[in-house]
Amino acid sequence: MTAPLPAVSLVDVASYLPENRVPTDYFTQFSRSDRMAKNVMFRSPRYRHHVARDETAVDMVERAVAPLIDRHGADAISSVDVLLTHTQLPDNPVLGSGPEVARRLGLRPDWVIDVHNSGCASFVQMMALARTILQSTDATTALIAATQNCAGQVFTQTAIRGLAHAPVPGDGCGVGLLTKSNDAPILGIECRTHPEFGGDMTFEAVPVSDRKYWEPGRGQVCVGFTESKITKVFARGNRLVPEVALAVCDRIGVQSTEVDTLVTNQPNRLFLRNWREAMQLTPEQHPDTFDECGNLFGAGIPVTLDTANRDGRIGNGSLVLMAAFAHAGDFAGAAAVRWGAGPTT
DSSP letters along 271-317, please? Predict the structure, then answer.
């Protein structure tokens, strides 16, 4: 008879937001007359945070991890066995940030993996990977880090900052600590890749040219949007997030209305409302950081989790459901946790 797999818990989360808090007025002075500016996908948050020019993804992870060190001790963090990172805009295009994060934090993990396929759903994917590794090896602890760092670097370029979608992203980093324990168990995870949507999100020069992003020439690079693409992404996002969220609910034997707290990625207010209504939950059960932080991409879930947790909105023992989709819909994931990281003071 096969022994049951050991439980894996998300025992703590923490986050970091860059100091530069940018109001929408910054972008208004550069805005152009653009039909897409009226699209609900691009209605601006009130604020967003932007990385400093000399601030790296590794700097952001180090600052996000600092509260974990304060709460658990330097030894507990330095001895993690697994390090997983996702960086929206790698500072070095041929190397992920994992090895330098390990050096900066004094880690010597057996596993270092930089994931780069799951975008806004990366925190969920890293939870899934960490759980698999902890359950199938001698590893007992994992540190996961999701960093969004392209708002202040890409969306403030002179040719980009006047575009309709430039005010929406914000920068930040969220981290999670997982252990092989039953302290705050992961109850279920669902990760789905949709290759039929692969390649639909483009990274191109403005104005459009055929040059590679690293080649010199005219134009500044940014995520490319068209009206037809927006329509497709909106339809996919409305469907994909509830699908994976409800799949996890079904797997763990609960109705969506039994979820205490839903935390999703934070692309815009309309997605947030539609997902909440699809899950039959109230605004109080669906915390968001959009107006303060904008679209944090992969950092959206952990930053929002940490913010709500520090505000006392997530009680220990409550059922927390995380769900997100990535890019133009090529990946989606959801995870349920029995919360146990509530503040002790």
Answer: HHHHHHHHTT--GGGS---HHHH-B-GGGHHHHHHHHHHHTT-S-TT
118 Cβ contact partners less than 8 Å away, ≥ 6 residues apart: 86, 124, 125, 126, 191, 298, 326, 331, 333
Phi-psi map region of 312: left, alpha, beta (phi>0 left; psi -120 to 50 alpha): left
Residues 248 and 336: beta-carbon distance below 8 Å: yes
d(CA 147, CA 171): 8
Q: How many CB atoms lie within 10 A of CB 15?
A: 27
Confidence of residue 214 (pLDDT cuts 50, 70, 90): confident
> Is residue 242 a part of any domain in this protein?
no
- DSSP class of residue 201 equals S
In a domain, 272, yes or no: no
Stretch 124-151: mean pLDDT, rounded? Answer: 98
Q: Are 9 and 178 in contact (CB under 8 A)?
A: yes
Structural domain tally of the chain? 1
How would DSSP label each residue in 134-163?
A: HHHSS--EEEEEEEE--HHHHTTSTTTTTS
> What is the C-alpha to C-alpha distance for residues 331 and 324, in angstroms, rounded to an integer?
9
- The CATH number covering residue 71 comes to 3.40.47.10
- β-pair partners for 203: 223
List, for residues 106-127, the tens digit of each pLDDT value: 999 999 999 999 999 999 999 9
Q: How confident is the model at residue 25 (pLDDT cuts 50, 70, 90)?
A: very high
Half-sphere exposure of 206 (CA within 13 A, CB side): 21
Classify residue 13 as exposed, middle or buried by CB count within 10 Å of its CB (0-12, 13-18, 19+).
buried
Backbone phi, psi, residue 177, to 5°: -115, 125
Residue 329 in any domain: the answer is: no
The pTM for the full model equals 0.96
| Residue type at position 251 | R
Measure the CA–CA gap between 308 and 289, rounded to whole angstroms. Answer: 9
The answer to the question of residue 265 being in a domain is no
**Other Cβ atoms within 10 Å of 313 Cβ, number:** 16
